[in-house]
Task: structure prediction
Amino acid sequence: MKNKKEINAGIIIIGNEVLSGRTKDINTSTLSLWLNSLGVQVKEVRIIPDIEKDIIETINTFKNKFSYVFTTGGIGPTHDDITAESVSKAFNIEYGYHKEALSILEKYYNPSEFSEGRKKMAMMPMTAKLILNPTSGAPGFYVENVFSLPGVPSILKSMLGGLDHLITGGAPILSHTINLRTVESEIAKSLTQVQNNNQDVEIGSYPFFRAGKLGVSIVVRSSDKAKIDTCNNEILKFVAEQKIQIVNEV
Amino acid sequence: MKNKKEINAGIIIIGNEVLSGRTKDINTSTLSLWLNSLGVQVKEVRIIPDIEKDIIETINTFKNKFSYVFTTGGIGPTHDDITAESVSKAFNIEYGYHKEALSILEKYYNPSEFSEGRKKMAMMPMTAKLILNPTSGAPGFYVENVFSLPGVPSILKSMLGGLDHLITGGAPILSHTINLRTVESEIAKSLTQVQNNNQDVEIGSYPFFRAGKLGVSIVVRSSDKAKIDTCNNEILKFVAEQKIQIVNEV
Result:
């Protein structure tokens, strides 16, 4: 599935707390928006439980299927944090104390605070490269094209800045949204025509309810600004013809 | 993967808008909490694009892997709504106007409003059974163990009440949460001991930042109330010994 034209990514959300419904996943959105800005399209997300076999299988599938793979969750100090060991097994790399990670954690904590639990956060594939953590010390890591980040959204977000230079994307994916005061069925036919005229532009149609009013967002996505403009003009043409109110364009 | 003891489910979120990061998925949480209450555990979620081949493959994998499968999104009137046709192909059932669905939509709309776009919402696997939609008319549908629901969260939620009687779960999964004023690394060792003593109870540990303060939620899950209680007592024992402050229990 890797090809030279498209640089893509897959995300693996590891955590029973998301599958149980207790926690709403927002890391997908954070990662996808960041990857889009770097010209990388997210093609698939899997949310899987804290089960070693499932994690290893999913990593092995994704690392061959996508240009980049991101895992979130399961790299903390507790018994249910098994991502680092699973990545080691997926790549057949020894799992143990990572020298550089241990040194970072030793500097981060007072010697009296540096408990066994905290030391565990330096255990990972021993030849992994580190992803620095400006928020809470414990680093993430990457092996080949698989990047392992923590599950806590604010910490994950703080670590992305340090990753930009490691990701080589294609042209950034641009998008333009036209919000209309209409319902999908009123524009379905015209929009199909626009999609047929512009096959390599992605046109999405999403109903919304906002401030008690119905509307539809039409989102046009492409890495080519000129193609987006052509597509937009066709949309605005039928919108004018059908006398549909434009809420705004963003 | 189907077995008689555990009734499980997989969720397929269909939509480019989630993969692009534009929309945060909250349907997983809604479906998981509802399924938990019926004694069904969600084992995997996949977020996939609006691509027919991907949808068909994922449905075929999931319908054999899980007791129940739920799809969300892609059943509206526009060109990017291809879930119904994909389900038809996955099950090799003719895709066309569903008599009962058409009759529902005819009653829901004035004849002058019943456009081609709206009629499309009656196109689905012709032998599917319907899932009634109390919010906006257009029904969902199910074929064997695969249930197709809309992507708009409020509409999806309104349709679950009508589905309860179709889902036969195991014992409901109970959970108990203890929120502690501590950090994970302080309790990692004790918690590992408790997990080792209670192997068939799921113990999750989740750091939180709330009102500017750090804490850890310990979530204990099982269908057996007595096992949860035993586990809780062991947790409360080490919490007292380590003089950790309990924020609350829920």
About this structure: Chain A has nine helices and twelve strands. The longest strand of chain A covers residues 213-222.
